[in-house]
DNA sequence: CTTGAATAATGAACATGTTAAGTAAATGGT
DNA sequence: ACCATTTACTTAACATGTTCATTATTCAAG
């Protein structure tokens, strides 16, 4: 009920209607559906992302993995240590370049992904239904287009 | 140099095209434009969000502020302590209810927002240009619709 | 072959995200 | 008025985000 007072038009959009907030809000709502599943299986959202990527690419370096999973290198270092301790991944060094890490999903990790995937896919389907299939597709297209538009001039 | 996408369409990586990843990727690209400005003025993204909300609503409780700034209560407690120590906000207790916090932006905090706003607005405008005004508007509409769709059944 | 610069990954320090537990003040029923 | 419950906020503990520094390896002159 407490309305914001009148103020002369300073050039700032209302916080609720900015792109960063809209993206963050929707992402929080989506992850709120996934988080219980992941925590129920003892992994965090980021650990799951890392293993999902490894499930798809078979073998990558740390830099490549960081790019694909959208995780910064220092965070990834810690996560890899955790996942290795749990036996989900195998860590090594690239034969050609001693600086690069060689990261692979272990059989245990692969089995873990397979066991959780059905629940994850079910939640994703439910979210798709609530949003609407066509609307979700349009949204993903726009997100990809905006992403491309901003990524092009990134190294300005 | 740049990461080449080896796949040519029929073996697309699943992870890359999910809604959570698309939202996270675009948000990271957007915030990469804002972060230098904020860090240049000595505040984090979250501290800025909190002060932006306070700039609009004049006075709120902690719960309300947490909702509006999309920050969890424990994080907000720490952030408020930091902002108070810097003199950006004034903390008190609600006269009617001793549990509720009374949070207001100080004159110093208000002046800070005004001084940074032009840079922030300029970056936001530049982002809008790159994405395209119509495309951005459609995107914000879809985000809001998806948000509403997921928020309705949240307390199922 | 040697040395300085660049690259890949890790370590360090602090801020925030996340969940669970704890504290103090209000509320509701008796 | 009393007491259990609820509410609003805070603490605690650990994982991750973020920036900067450091180490180890490779690369590129010279």
UniProtKB/TrEMBL annotation, chains A, B:
<keyword id="KW-0238">DNA-binding</keyword>
<dbReference type="InterPro" id="IPR012712">
    <property type="entry name" value="HpaR/FarR"/>
</dbReference>
<keyword id="KW-0804">Transcription</keyword>
<dbReference type="InterPro" id="IPR036390">
    <property type="entry name" value="WH_DNA-bd_sf"/>
</dbReference>
<dbReference type="GO" id="GO:0045892">
    <property type="term" value="P:negative regulation of DNA-templated transcription"/>
</dbReference>
<dbReference type="InterPro" id="IPR000835">
    <property type="entry name" value="HTH_MarR-typ"/>
</dbReference>
<dbReference type="GO" id="GO:0003677">
    <property type="term" value="F:DNA binding"/>
</dbReference>
<dbReference type="GO" id="GO:0003700">
    <property type="term" value="F:DNA-binding transcription factor activity"/>
</dbReference>
<dbReference type="InterPro" id="IPR039422">
    <property type="entry name" value="MarR/SlyA-like"/>
</dbReference>
<dbReference type="Pfam" id="PF12802">
    <property type="entry name" value="MarR_2"/>
</dbReference>
<dbReference type="GO" id="GO:0006950">
    <property type="term" value="P:response to stress"/>
</dbReference>
<feature type="domain" description="HTH marR-type">
    <location>
        <begin position="16"/>
        <end position="148"/>
    </location>
</feature>
<protein>
    <submittedName>
        <fullName>Transcriptional regulator, MarR family</fullName>
    </submittedName>
</protein>
<dbReference type="InterPro" id="IPR023187">
    <property type="entry name" value="Tscrpt_reg_MarR-type_CS"/>
</dbReference>
<keyword id="KW-0805">Transcription regulation</keyword>
<dbReference type="InterPro" id="IPR036388">
    <property type="entry name" value="WH-like_DNA-bd_sf"/>
</dbReference>
